[in-house]
Amino acid sequence: MTRAFTRTSVRLADGRELHYFDERPVAIRRPSDGRHLSPVPMRSEVRVDPLSGEPVIIAAHRQERTHRPAAEDCPLCPSRPGRATEVPARAYDVVSFENRFPAFADPGRCEVVCFTDDHAASFVDLSVERARLIIEAWAERTATLSGDAGIEQVFVFENRGEAIGVTLHHPHGQIYGFPFVAPRTAVMLETARTHRATTGRDLFADILDAERRDERVVTAAEHWTAFVPGAARWPVEVHLFPHRAVPDLAALDDGERDELATIYLDLLRRFELFHAGEHPMPYVAAWHQAPVRTGRDLVRLHLQLLSIQRGPDRLKYLAGSEAAMGAFLNDLVPEETARRLRDA
Amino acid sequence: MTRAFTRTSVRLADGRELHYFDERPVAIRRPSDGRHLSPVPMRSEVRVDPLSGEPVIIAAHRQERTHRPAAEDCPLCPSRPGRATEVPARAYDVVSFENRFPAFADPGRCEVVCFTDDHAASFVDLSVERARLIIEAWAERTATLSGDAGIEQVFVFENRGEAIGVTLHHPHGQIYGFPFVAPRTAVMLETARTHRATTGRDLFADILDAERRDERVVTAAEHWTAFVPGAARWPVEVHLFPHRAVPDLAALDDGERDELATIYLDLLRRFELFHAGEHPMPYVAAWHQAPVRTGRDLVRLHLQLLSIQRGPDRLKYLAGSEAAMGAFLNDLVPEETARRLRDA
Would you call B67 an interface residue with chain A, using a CB distance cutoff of 8 Å? Predict the structure, then answer.
């Protein structure tokens, strides 16, 4: 697989950064955006919940963000004559740019990653080469944002489907540079630290070893293993672990990145077929990465791919038990989910 | 306010318990259910997520539970000739019974609490006397279930609205007797323990003192104060704290229960009017209670009333940041939410 690609960085009209990732080894990109755009006033702050010590982001300005625009008004499509979008180019492969309506910024950072300029595509339809380029973009953005003094953790993710509230249909993901260690990661870090202190071993290695011997493996290859976790919280949930202890996407070597492109597309296809493929499957693809400044030898990079679609026409909702108490109820048995994903 | 009420306990045809709570001081209730019902096979287990140490309930049998039945098939309505429901009576005030499709049982317990026999009502429409009787029922069930050897925490809640997945429209809530301390409570307990160790003070008293001096109080009375928490996770969220340090609903005295009936209905009305009252407001009303066997002097009873309705036609969805990372983004500013609730 070729790994030649080009990154070109430009500034949008209101000063935001945009990065083109092109499959070609050389790409000529216009240096700037011709629009007249005023910066969006930001009103965002991180508050701490005194009952838990956990951060919560209050982001008032976002009520005005673009909400389900018509396809011809899509801000993520390439620009065309008479219609300037967020991407000042007639075509593109992959772009990552600062969100015009970020949940937070300074400290922190919110980027949008467009996976293709084809409005009607989905990640699952992309070529292996394109998936490989997206991985390269994720890794580059992770490395760069990790160098920002205000960022404590880089979170790479895709929300897909109206059922989970996606308001822009153009195939895209997001990257959050959190100005804190996310609550879930803080718990993992503490669990891994306790596990090391009591057993001398690596928590993620032990989980991977146990799952590889169990009946919940969905697919495995040289560098990666995907399994349904035994205590899955979500109706359809897969964890994809690298075999090597790496803290984040930036630490993956070329062989791991190549294989990831193939195995990730394979997992998305299995998700798509899970409910007999009747409609696009809503999902969250969340890359858990180690914090930037702490626990990098304790938290291993892994993907959590989850869906709230518990049946062809039924969603899992978070109600009292989950929303208020953090006590998850899963109506699907993980071993059965794994079998169905293997057979998909 | 009269507090005379009668509790009558019967067994349903498959052996489940049902308790009538009647507003009259004497009530004659048929001792049993005339239906032929086989017990529903249970396939439920509590598993532990090794990444967090948190329990997850796997409840496979529930995929078959009753899903949005037509009003004439409502299992929570009173029985009528030719149509036997879950409640073997022609009329009732309040009933609590074991769920035929429990998420878990033995250890643990799931009860359904019907607030009225009027299918078309909502809690917000009930009289103060009925609200007072429901509080009595909640307190009684909390006390009784706390005596069960397999139950570590009693969770009293109402999920309201299709937007959060409610499948039965008859006005009802639920009670879970968790066979563990819920993850959220475990975090609160640890936070309160650390707070006491470092300051010598009570965490909940300190939060209440701070909030009563702040601009986020929605309503207050002699025994209770309701406020929007400064770090609210949900678009519309109110916490209702008793002024006295009590671990659970069973520990409330008569004066506190009387006032609660009034203030709770007042809060529900404010929720209903929040988005100009255009349609029923979906909400979760969650009673946080101390665990049965630990931390009873550390965790104070309080209500968390939350809604995912962030605008008249917009819902808050839990996507990647919340679902995978536990990092909540709230688009509404708590001080503004409090002002709107005060003015409602």
Answer: yes
Give the residue from A163, A178, A193 where a domain finishes: A178
Confidence tier at B62 by pLDDT (50, 70, 90): low
pLDDT band of residue A272 (cuts 50, 70, 90) is very high
SS (H, E, C) chain A: CCCCCEEEEEECCCCCEEEEEECCCCCCCCCECCCCCCCCCCCEEEEECCCCCCEEEEEHHHHHCCCCCCHHHCCCCECECCECCCECCCCCCEEEEECCCCCCCCCCEEEEEECCCCCCCCHHHCCHHHHHHHHHHHHHHHHHHHCCCCCCEEEEEEEECHHHCCCCCCCEEEEEEECCCCHHHHHHHHHHHHHHHHHCCCHHHHHHHHHHCCCCEEEECCCEEEECCCCCCCCEEEEEEECCCCCCHHHCCHHHHHHHHHHHHHHHHHHHHHCCCCCCCCEEEEEECCCCCCCCCCCCCEEEEEECEEECCEECCCCHHHHHHCCEEECCCHHHHHHHHHHC
Say whether B172 is catalytic: yes
A66 found inside a domain:
yes
In a domain, A153, yes or no: yes
CB-based contact, A45 to chain B, within 8 Å? no
Q: Does B208 touch chain A (CB under 8 A)?
A: no
The residue out of A156, A178, A200 marking a domain boundary is A178
Enumerate the active-site residues of A: 172
Distance CA B121, CA B115 (A): 9
> pLDDT (tens digit, 9 = 90+) per residue, B67-125?
667 778 899 999 998 899 999 999 999 999 999 989 998 889 999 999 999 999 999 99
| Residues in chain B closer than 8 A to A166 (CB atoms) | 319
Nearest-by-Cβ selection for B325 from A48, A159, A183: A183
Query: Domain containing B269: what range?
Result: 183-343
Rounded CA-CA distance B247/B295 in Å is 9
For residue A247, what is the domain's CATH number? 3.30.428.10
Model pTM score: 0.94
Contacts of B55 in chain A (CB under 8 A): 231, 327
Q: Are A159 and A231 contained in the same domain?
A: no
B7 burial (CB, 10 Å; 0-12 / 13-18 / 19+) is middle
ipTM associated with this complex: 0.94
- Give the three-class secondary structure for B292: coil
Question: Does residue B191 share a domain with residue B163?
Answer: no
Residue B79 near residue B88, CB atoms below 8 Å: yes
Let me know whether B140 and B222 are in one domain: no
Assigned domain for B104 exists: yes
Please state the domain count of chain A: 2
Give buried/exposed letters for A276-298 (b at 16+ CB in 10 A, else e). eeeebbbbbbbbbbbbbeebbeb
Q: Which of B19, B169, B170, B172 is catalytic?
A: B172
